Amino acid sequence: VDLYIDTGDQQRNKAIFAALEGRREEIEAAFGGGLRWERMDDKRASRIAMYYDRMIDINAEPFELKALRAWGVQMLIKLKRALDEPARQAMEPHLAQKNGKAVKPSH
After folding, report:
1. Exposed (0-12), middle (13-18) or buried (19+): which is 7, by Cβ within 10 Å?
2. What pLDDT is stored for residue 57 in this prediction?
């Protein structure tokens, strides 16, 4: 489960990631635990993620797949709640400029 930051512009992606990473303690506290902070300097995008602690494939036992689905839904909800406002705030300066013209974000 992750927030994949890719606006199409590497510099903008890294700036958004840096803004979020600056609030790491707050975000992880809201999430309820540690997250993987993947700046990925060699890539255009960056990622903030939580990974399932076991390898599992489509041929796993039904109870394992059910557990994975439940975990994924739970983590997605927690990640959205933890990142919603910080991500909006991190992106706002970048949304304010569109095609070289100042744009007021709509809320």
Report:
1. middle
2. 86
Residue 47 phi/psi, 5-degree rounding, is -150, 145
The set of residues, in sequence order, having a beta carbon less than 8 Å from that of 73 and lying 6+ positions away, is none
Burial of 73 (0-12, 13-18, 19+ CB in 10 A): exposed
Q: Which residues of 46-68 are buried (b: 16+ CB within 10 A; e: fewer)?
A: bbbebeeeeeeeeeeeeeeeeee
Kindly report the pTM of this predicted structure: 0.83
Q: How far is CA 66 from the centre of its chain?
A: 24
pLDDT for the residue numbered 104: 47
pLDDT of residue 95: 79
Helices (H), the chain: 10-21, 24-31, 62-95
User: How large is the average pLDDT for residues 83-107?
Assistant: 73
Question: What does the pLDDT look like over 39-79, one tens digit per residue?
Answer: 999 999 999 999 999 898 889 999 999 999 999 999 999 99
SS3 of 29, please?
helix
